[in-house]
Amino acid sequence: MIINLSHQHSLLSQWMHEIRAVDIQQDRMRFRRNTERVGEIIAYEISKTLEYTHTETTTPLGNKQVETIVEQPILATILRAGIPLHQGLLNYFDQSDCAFIAAYRKHNKADGTFEIEQHYVTCPDLDGKTLIIADPMLATGASLILAIEGLLEFGKPKSIHIATVISCSEGIDNVLRKFPEAHIWAGDIDDELTAKGYIVPGLGDAGDLSFGSKLQF
Question: What is the pLDDT of residues 44-62, one digit of tens each?
């Protein structure tokens, strides 16, 4: 299942404009908060797909039958760019256990190609759980595929949801070839990648826009 949330007219469209706009996205706090908001919207939409149970709630004036989530999902993200999007998910699934993956593109300075370096994965038991992994930019899908493979060493989830700010069609295809059961939720979907694997028009480097530029050795 692929869900492009920009196809629905909502406040998310305004936030996506601000996230992409080169003259607005330079405000780091605003960029992080807008990314967080996208995570909150995706969390709300995913919540509609979860399993609920009847619960009796006692109020000061009586009892009421309500629906509550059977089990909180596991929230995962790829450091560092995924932190604001992950926070948006966590704002809504505020009792969830969390997983973290440290991965990055290691670029070849000679020809601009890159490899994915993944050095750290921490994760609770995933067996039978709903897994939501936040990755703001689904470009080629290489880092996300490697991250999911690392997480699956901690158990087999009953469902996998991928939360992104912007996805590229090519990356979506690559991920679904590897994990056809996954659900991809995107703030928007673009159709072009540069030769170096950046989404066009995209928004730039989500990690740098959130936390500042970095040196790479």
Answer: 999 999 999 999 999 999 9
DSSP state of 29: H
| Structure-token pair, residue 68 | 């509550």
What percentage of the chain exceeds 70 in pLDDT? 94
Q: Which domains are delineated in the chain?
A: 2-49+73-106+114-209 (3.40.50.2020)
> Global pTM?
0.92
Phi, psi of 142, rounded to the nearest 5 degrees: -60, -45
